[in-house]
Amino acid sequence: MSGSGSGSGSGRAASRTAVLVCQGRAAAHGRAATDHFADPVAVGLLRVAERETVDDVRAKIPPEGRQERLAYESVRACAEVVVPRTVAIDEALRARMTGQLVILGAGLDTRAWRLPGLAGTDVWEVDHPASQQDKRARLAEAAPARRGPDKDGPVAAGPAAVARSVRFTPVDFAVDDLGAALDAAGHDPSAPTTWLWEGVVPYLTRDEVRATVAALAARTVPGSALVVNYQAPSARAAAGRLLARVLGGSVTSGEPWRSLWRPRRMAALLAEYGLRVVSDDDLLALAQTLGSPARRWTSLRSGRVAVAESR
Ligand SMILES: C[S@@+](CC[C@H](N)C(=O)[O-])C[C@H]1O[C@@H](n2cnc3c(N)ncnc32)[C@H](O)[C@@H]1O
Question: In angstroms, what CA-CA distances link 151 with 72, 185, 302?
Answer without folding.
Answer: 39, 12, 40
